Amino acid sequence: MKKILLGGTALAAAALVAMPALADEKPVTSGLSINITGFVAWEAGLIIGSSDDNRDREYDFNSNGRLQFDIKNVTDSGLEYGARIRMNNVNRRQNVTVDRQYVYLKGDFGTVTLGDSPQVAGDFGYFFAPDDILNAQGGYGDNLDGNYRYGGGDFFSLDPTYHSGLDKSTSVKYSSPSIGGFIFAVGFTPVISDSKDLSNGTQGRQDLFNGGQVFENAISGGVGYEGEFDGLSLKVRGTASYANGISNHWDLETYSAGGQIGVDGIVASLVWVGTPSGFGVGQTDKNFDTIGFGLGYSLGNGVNLGLGYAYTWADKNNDLFGTDSQKLDLKDNHVAVATVNYTVAPGLNTYAEVVYEIQSFRKKGIFNQDGDLIGTVKSEKSWEQATFLTGVSVSF
Q1: Which residue numbers delimit the Porin domain (predicted)?
Q2: How many angstroms from the chain centroid is the CA of residue 85?
Q3: What is the CATH number of domain 32-395?
Q4: Closest C-alpha among 220, 218, 213, 222 to residue 243
Q5: CB of 200 closer than 8 Å to CB of 208
Q6: How confident is the model at residue 50 (pLDDT cuts 50, 70, 90)?
Q7: Is the pTM of this model over 0.70?
Q8: Separation between Cα atoms, residue 155 and residue 313, nearest integer Å
Q9: Which pLDDT score, from 0 to 100, does residue 31 have?
Q10: Looking at the chain, which residues constitute the CATH 2.40.160.10 domain(s)?
């Protein structure tokens, strides 16, 4: 992490060159600090076994990066203010994705966040203990919370923003200060799209029309408690989120409840995420539920272990496809991951993990010559795969 203090002679000189100023004027950035963080990662993947043999090779390499800029200052009255810009997919294959861009105000009253920030459903709903242990970055060695580049990961949720669309919006959010360990938060966004080019983007007029949009008037709320007792850390939280479906999308209704404990280098978490309507970014009104478990353990000397398991089940006739494009109407889904992480030096991490997943379906699709779905037949079939991943990352 690199810290830059703005102000001083260099910035003052630049300001004088740019425009005339009185002797007692100060640059508007006086006292601000900028923290620059990020990572660069490389990964090798090997499909150990799969029920799907429709490919030409079982292995591949991939790499990615992230840049994050955090700006912060505190006024004489104690008001903290700042901003964050986070750029994902810093690589040669994809356009850079700016998935965080917001300003915040923080004081004794709590925190107000304005912009593209994690929804309350993500802030309060996310529980996965290995995330606190593995020193992972952006899906590289992240155990259950990985990127699933070789298939899978289509249905389970570790918080309600998974598969709901709640992660794609510009919103206003209030988070309370801790009151005896108890906290709460609420958030609102006018419209949500499944496209990064819409949903409260710079061309705001597009958001006044339903075309290309998924939900409107989305609200999220969360309550929780955090505390420590004789070396045992504890946090429990719950969330509820609602939105009106538009453009032939179902209304969104999703909930979560979870908890995490930690003691002596061991952390464990359990989370339930239930979506009675609007799963798959508004594609279905059938109920989806996930139970997710995580266990992390630090062995010392830079060695950390992570275990994750998620079980998802769904109501009949949800008609959603998974990784296998021939099968639909999910019945249930099991995902299990084991990860070993080793910190070689500060900021330098390497890892190895095995991912196993099975998706069970109730139907098989019938397609015409153009690949369009024209019907379905009952077919109790599954997609199954095991993958080995290993890689190295440098974080700063």
Answers
A1: 10-356
A2: 15
A3: 2.40.160.10
A4: 218
A5: no
A6: very high
A7: yes
A8: 9
A9: 75
A10: 32-395
Q: Tokens 């990964």 belong to which residue?
A: 43
pLDDT value at 196 more than 70: no
Contacts 24+ apart (CB under 8 A), 63-67: 63/91, 64/40, 64/88, 64/89, 64/90, 64/91, 64/138, 64/139, 64/140, 65/38, 65/39, 65/40, 65/41, 65/90, 65/91, 66/38, 66/39, 66/90, 66/137, 66/138, 67/36, 67/37, 67/38
Q: How does DSSP classify residue 318? A: -
DSSP-derived 3-state class of residue 122 = helix
To which residue do tokens 């703005």 refer? Answer: 6
Which two three-digit tokens encode residue 82?
């700042």
Contact 383, 44 (CB under 8 A): no
Helices (H), the chain: 8-18, 120-123, 279-282
Angle at 393 between CA 388 and CA 396, to 5 degrees: 155
If residue 377 lies in a helix (H) or strand (E), which one and from where to where?
strand 373-395
Contact by Cβ (8 Å): 138, 78: no
CA distances from 57 to 45, 90, 324, 387 (A): 11, 26, 17, 13
Residues 373, 345: Cα–Cα separation, whole Å: 52
What are the φ and ψ backbone dihedral angles of 133, each rounded to 5 degrees? -115, -35
8 Å CB contact between 66 and 39: yes
101 Cβ contact partners less than 8 Å away, ≥ 6 residues apart? 84, 85, 86, 115, 116
**Number of helices followed by number of strands (H, E) in the chain:** 3, 17
Report the distance separating Cα 258 and Cα 122, nearest Å.
12
Q: What is the pLDDT of residue 32?
A: 86
Assigned token pair, 358: 């099975």
Residue at 364: amino acid letter: K
The tokens describing 120, both together, are 């309350």
Q: Which residue has the tokens 């059938």?
A: 286
- 278/242 Cα distance (integer angstroms): 9
